[in-house]
Design goal:
The chain has 14 helices and 15 strands. By secondary structure, the chain is of the alpha/beta class. The chain has two domains: about 100 residues, Urease, subunit C, domain 1 (Roll), CATH 2.30.40.10; about 300 residues, TIM Barrel (Alpha-Beta Barrel), CATH 3.20.20. Strands 5, 6, 7, 8, 9, 10, 11 and 12 form an eight-stranded parallel β-sheet that branches. Strands 3-2-1-4-13-14-15 form a seven-stranded mixed β-sheet, with no helix packed on it. Strand 9, helix 7 and strand 10 form a beta-alpha-beta unit. Helix 6 packs parallel to helix 7, helix 7 packs parallel to helix 8 and helix 10 packs antiparallel against helix 11. The N and C termini lie far apart (about 55 Å).
């Protein structure tokens, strides 16, 4: 036996007899714990956390003295559950009368600072992961990466790159021609092969997913309706190009014709889905795609159309019609068994009010548990993160929130989150 092998074996033997130091951990005493939404909550549990991740969950309240330098968060009077997730936000702005002037006057740098402010409002509201469904790409990718690096605080961001057709919902509207030319993005496309190029381009620059607009949109300042606008060959090329590069596609869609077209093309989710009818419901169930309802956005724009005067006539008409129709059609889709992932379209509504969507979902017929599942387990599945977030289990990120009463009894409890932890850090 060589002297090198003998040395290694001796070192290993010495390590075996040396007492190992106790791990430095964080403990959470949870009065009620909903570790896996969809299952029954348990009482008097301890969550053991090492760094960013959960080590174990034990029955009863573990003694902090059993751990070296343990930090205890006593939530024995609270209901504890996984951090919530919002699958449709726009962190770079908020709808209001100053949107046009902000676009003209705010520097990209200042807008980025505001985005981080909105991100923190979202995190403090209990939403530890969000899917940004359309912002200025490079800036949102930078915010995502800065948060991941720990340089700034904010929720975990899954950032979309937008692809849309000339004159469609994803294209610039409501400004003079010179500005339209200046602000038209490279991701605006026409025809299948140009849309293939645009898809590859947004992925090149950092998109986690691709967001398309198969129908017209409410806030497009053109009287072009809310029906299908992207053609089937364009939709199919976007989905295929995204799949080839390991990305899912989400489609903004209001009218049923555009919903059906996007589902037939193979998208992973439909955003809004206002006029989901029987044929679309059948396709939802056949494909397994998610519906992200954004009821809060509908309520918000309908109210603004009546109460404010900054919207054009074209936008007002669409806002009132779509906003008033969203809830009833969502109720039918849910009752028929369509899979639902939680999403608000915050940026249309105010950032930090994301939990108001939960109240609207319950009003539309979902149970409180179904809403929480949509905002945790289902959301994690949609973004392919079930191995790391969505439930509180050993090995997963310590994304944890607490409220002072059970949201299973009163969903309004989610409106006032008392404790927020993301990746083991308390905010």
């Amino acid at each position: 036996m060589s002297s090198r092998v003998i040395t290694i074996l001796f070192a290993a033997a010495m390590l075996a007899v040396v007492p190992q130091a106790k791990a430095e951990v964080t403990l959470i005493h949870a009065g009620q714990l909903l570790a896996v939404p969809g299952e029954r909550p348990a009482r008097e549990q301890t969550i053991v956390i090492d760094g960013e991740r959960i080590v174990e969950i034990v029955d009863g309240y573990a003694n902090p003295d059993d751990y070296e330098d343990a930090t205890l968060h006593d939530l024995s009077e609270y209901f504890v559950l996984p951090g919530l997730m919002d699958m449709h936000v726009h962190l770079q702005g908020e709808l209001g009368p100053k949107n046009d002037s902000d676009t003209l006057k705010m520097s990209p740098q200042l807008m980025q600072m505001r985005s981080q402010y909105f991100a923190m409002q979202t995190l403090r509201a209990g939403f530890t992961t969000v899917r940004d469904a359309g912002s200025s790409g490079e800036e949102m990718y930078a915010l995502r990466d800065a948060i991941n690096a720990g340089w700034v605080d904010g929720p975990r961001i899954i950032a979309a790159g937008g692809v849309g057709i000339t004159g469609g919902h994803a294209d610039i509207s409501g400004v003079k021609p010179e500005l339209m030319k200046h602000w038209t993005r490279d991701s605006v496309c026409d025809g299948p092969y140009d849309c293939r190029r645009a898809t590859r381009n947004v992925i090149k620059y950092g998109a986690d997913l691709v967001k398309i607009t198969s129908t017209g949109g409410v806030l497009t300042d053109r009287a072009t309706g809310t029906g299908q606008q992207m053609e089937m060959d364009e939709l199919r090329e976007v989905v295929l190009a995204a799949e080839r590069m390991g990305r899912k596609v989400a489609s903004h869609a209001h009218e049923e014709d555009g919903i059906i077209a996007a589902l037939e093309a193979g998208v992973a989710s439909i955003e809004h889905g206002t006029y989901t009818g029987p044929d679309a419901i059948k396709l939802f169930k056949e494909t397994g795609a998610y519906l992200v309802p954004t009821l809060l956005a509908g309520k918000t724009v309908a109210a603004m159309a009546v109460e404010s005067d900054f919207m054009s006539d074209a936008i007002k008409e669409k806002a009132i019609r779509v906003g008033e129709d969203m809830s009833d059609n969502f109720a039918k889709a849910h009752a028929a068994g369509v899979k639902v992932a939680y999403g608000t379209d915050s940026g249309v509504s105010r950032h930090g009010t994301n939990a108001e969507e939960a109240l609207l979902m319950v009003e539309a017929g979902m149970s409180e548990m179904e809403v929480i599942v949509a905002a945790t387990v289902n959301a994690a599945d949609l973004i392919d993160r079930t191995d790391s977030i969505g439930t509180l289990e050993a090995g997963k990120y310590a994304d944890i929130i607490a409220v002072d009463e059970s949201p299973l009894d009163n969903i309004e409890a989610l409106l006032d989150v008392d404790f927020v932890m993301k990746g083991g850090k308390v905010y």
